[in-house]
Amino acid sequence: LDKLKFFVNYTHQDPQFNKGDFNKKDIPLVPRHQVSTGLIVKFLNNFNLSLSGKYVGSRFAGSDTSNALPKEKPYTVMDGKISYERKNMEVFAEVNNILNEKYSSYISSFGTTKFFYPAAEQNFNVGVSLKF
Fold first, then answer.
1. Where are the alpha helices (DSSP H) in 3-129?
2. Burial (CB count within 10 angstroms: exposed 0-12, middle 13-18, buried 19+), residue 45
3. What does the alpha-carbon distance between residue 86 and residue 50 come to, in Å, rounded to a whole number?
4. How far apart are CA 77 and CA 96, in angstroms?
5. Which terminus, N or C, of the chain has the lesser number of Cβ atoms within 10 Å?
6. Does pTM surpass 0.85?
């Protein structure tokens, strides 16, 4: 074990319009609470293993400036990655949405109808990155 990093970021915001027709209404798509956290472990000089998570609180759908529709449910997503780094090259494999959470990071509305743009379910990426 060469290095261990832990991070947490919490955001609390009061996303409201402050004048006009929608004064004191929440701005659509902006959650009041959001948390990101993760753990990064470096080992055997060149390997990195990371696990990160993100919680996004409830929010109104896009275009729902009058806040007429119910808020969307919060969601939590976890991702993992293992990589090998040497000089200016990185070889990696990652798993996104480890728990296969079904969620929409963007929801639009028109009248009383909501349109969901589903986020990717569990997916995998493998690649090589070169830095110049």
1. none
2. exposed
3. 17
4. 8
5. C
6. yes
Residue type, 38: G
Closest CA to 54 of 76, 80, 33: 76
The 10s digit of each residue's pLDDT in 89-118 is: 999 999 999 999 999 988 888 888 888 889
Q: What gap in Å lies between CA 118 and CA 97, rounded to an integer?
A: 13
Given a contact cutoff of 8 angstroms between Cβ atoms, the answer to whether 104 and 117 are in contact is yes
Decide: residue 59, CB within 10 A, 0-12 exposed, 13-18 middle, 19+ buried.
Answer: buried
Q: pLDDT digits over 40-95, tens only?
A: 999 999 999 999 999 999 999 998 999 999 999 999 999 999 999 999 999 999 99
